[in-house]
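Dear support,

We are seeing what looks like truncated structure output for some complexes. This example has two components. We would appreciate it if you could run it in full and send us the complete C-alpha cell output so we can diff it against ours.
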Amino acid sequence: MLNFEISLPTRMVLGRGVQERAGEFLKKFDATKVLLHYGSDRIKRTGLFDQIAASIAREGISYIELGGVQPNPRLALVREGIALCKREGVDFVLAIGGGSVIDSAKAIAHGTAYDGDVWDFFTYKVPVTKTIGIGTVLTLPAAGSECSMSCVITKEEGWLKRGVNTELNRPLFSLLNPELCTTLPREQVAYGAIDMICHIMERYFTNTPDVQVTDRMAEGVIMAAMEAAKTAYADPTDYEAQAQLMWCSTLAHNNILGVGKEQDWSSHQMEHELSALYDVPHGAGLAVLFPAWMRYVYKHDVRRFAQFANRIFGIVIDPFDLEKTALAGIEALEAFLRGLNLPLKLHELGIGEDRLMEMAQKTKKTNLPAEETVGGFVHLSTQDCYNIFKSAL
Amino acid sequence: MLNFEISLPTRMVLGRGVQERAGEFLKKFDATKVLLHYGSDRIKRTGLFDQIAASIAREGISYIELGGVQPNPRLALVREGIALCKREGVDFVLAIGGGSVIDSAKAIAHGTAYDGDVWDFFTYKVPVTKTIGIGTVLTLPAAGSECSMSCVITKEEGWLKRGVNTELNRPLFSLLNPELCTTLPREQVAYGAIDMICHIMERYFTNTPDVQVTDRMAEGVIMAAMEAAKTAYADPTDYEAQAQLMWCSTLAHNNILGVGKEQDWSSHQMEHELSALYDVPHGAGLAVLFPAWMRYVYKHDVRRFAQFANRIFGIVIDPFDLEKTALAGIEALEAFLRGLNLPLKLHELGIGEDRLMEMAQKTKKTNLPAEETVGGFVHLSTQDCYNIFKSAL
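Here is the complete output from our reference environment:
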C-alpha cells in the first residue's frame, strides 16, 4: 500500500425530500447570496426549482439563477457565470443537476474567487487556492462530482475537455434525494451506472501490491451498483435501487476506493477526447472504451483480471488458464453492459475511423501536468491509444 | 435504506513515518499550546515521543504532557487533564496511542471547553456543543476512535463505562504509521482485529431492507480484516498486514459502513459492562460475547446470517436449511477467533456466574438516553442479556 491522505468533509445527505433542506444548509455554511445553477428548464417544470427556491427564501437568503448547462459543460457558460457572480456579489453556487451542472458550478466558484482567466486552472497554469461556497442537489447519479475532487470543463475552441483535481472541488454539502431519479429515462440510468462502475475500475486495476481492503470494498460497490443498475434500468421508479445508485455514485469517485494505490484513468482520458470531439454521452463512450482497454491490457497482469472475474462475476478461477478466466470476466462485463442496451463499439455511436489518430494524440496531450504517459496500470503510447480506439470500431 | 447524513472531515494520513508530520498538522489547525496525551512510558523508550515532540518544536509550537492512560480510560485522569489544560491554556490535545488514549483525549478536549463537570456529557445531562482541537498519532488499530464519533470513559465509582456520540468526537487529523504496530504483542493484534470486526458486525446485523451497498462494503472489509489479522498475528512485523488493519480499524467505526440502516450494538454494550466490572481487554470480552449473541438471536433473521456465512466464509447456502448455513457461519467465525487464540467463553477469562445479573441490569441502564431496550436488530430484555452472559460461561 502506498502512503496516502484523505478526508471527506462534504456533508452528504441522502433520503426522501432532502432538497427541502437546501436553505438550512446554505445558512449553516454562511451563504448570503446564492447562484442557482442548472441545465434545462426541466427542473422548473417538475417543481424542483421552486421547492429549493422556497427553502432558501425561508432562510432569508437571496439568490439569482443561471441555467443552460449542457452535457460536457462549456467554458463559455462558466465564464458567463463568473461574470454574473462577480457583478452580483454571489458567495455561494448551488448546483441543481448531475455531474455537468456540478462541474460547471465548481468552475464558476473557483473563477469567482480568482482575478485571472478560469481556464488557467485547467491548463495547470495556476493552482486553485481559493473558491466560494459550493453545494449540490443531485438529480443524476453518475459522475460522483457531488463529493469528488474532480471538475471537467470543455473549451469550445478546439473542443478541449480538461479536468482539474483539487480538494477545493469537494462541495460543502450535497443533497441526494433518490426520488428525483425515479423519473430519469432508462438510458440515463445506464449511462450513470457505467460511469460510476468505471470510476471504480479505473482505481481497481493497479500495480500496487497489498491493497486488499480497497480491492474488497471496490468489488463490493461494483457488485451492488450492477445489481441496482439492472433493477433501476428495468424500472426507473424503483426508489431503493435509485438510492443504491446515488450512494454508489458518491463512493465511486470520492476516492475512498482509491487510496494507497496507483490508479489508471486512461479509459477516461480517451473517452474525454471522444466525447469532446463527437459530443456523445460520457457513459456511452466509456461502455465502448473500457472493455476495449481491458482486452488491450489484460495480459499485463492476468491474475488481477482473473480476480476481477472471480470476485465480481463468480467465475471459477482456472489455475491452469488464468487468461481464460480473465477473458471470461471481460465478457461478463460486456454482457452486463449489453443488458443495459449500452453500445460496445464505436460504429454504434456513428463514429468511424477518420479521426482516431487525432483523438489518440489529444489523449496524450490531455495528460497534464507534463507527464509523458497515459495510464497508471499500463503506460500507453499514442500508438497504443490509437490501437484501442481502432479495436473498438 | 433509511435517510442518512455523513461527513468524514478527519484528515487521515497513512504511511511510513507520518508521525514526523505531527507539527505540520498542528500548525495547519492553528494549535498554539498542545497537550501530548499518552498511556505508558513505552512511547518514550521507543523514541516515538521524542520524534513527535521534535516535529512540534520545529513549528515553534509549545507543548506539555500527560501520560498514564489505562485501558478502559478513567474519569479521574480525564479530570486531571482538564484541570491541566485549563490552567496551562492548552488549545489542542494530541493523543499518542490507541483507542483508550484517544477517548481520554477527546473527553479532556470537551471538558476543557466546558465550565461544568465533564461527566455531564456521559450521562446525557448536556450535549457536547464545543471542544478544543483533537488530533491523534495511532499506535494500535482497534477501536477506530481515530476517525469515529465515539468516546467511552469509565467512572471508577461504581465502575460505570459510558459513551457519548457526537460529530465533535471526530479528530481534526489522525496520523497512522503501520510501522508503529509492528512491535505490538500478538495478543494486542488479535484484540484489535476482533474489535474492528465487531464494529462492522454491529452495523451489519440490521432489520433495514435494501442496504446492499453497505452490506457488500462491510463484507469486503471484514474479509480483508480477517486475512490481515491472520497474517499480522502470525508475524506482527508484517508492515503490509498492519497497514491493512490500521485502515480497517478506521473504516470499521467511522460509520461509512453503517449509513442508512438501523444498527445493533448490544454486544458492545454488554461488553462494556463486562470490562468495566472485570477490567478484561475489550477485544477478549467481544470474542466471548459476540458469538454468544449471534447464537442467541440468529433465528430472528436466519437469511441475513446465511448471507453472512456465504459471503464472508464462502459457505454454500443450503436453501432447504438456512439455519444450518447460518450456524456454519457462526462456527466459522468462532474458528477464526480460535485461530487468533482468543477466548470464546467467560471461564477462560476467569469469570464465573456470580455477577451476571448485575451486568445484565447495568447493560440496560447504560442504554442512555432513556431507551427501553438494548439492541437494534433484536431488542433484548434484562433477562435476555443475562441469558447471553450465561450461555457464554
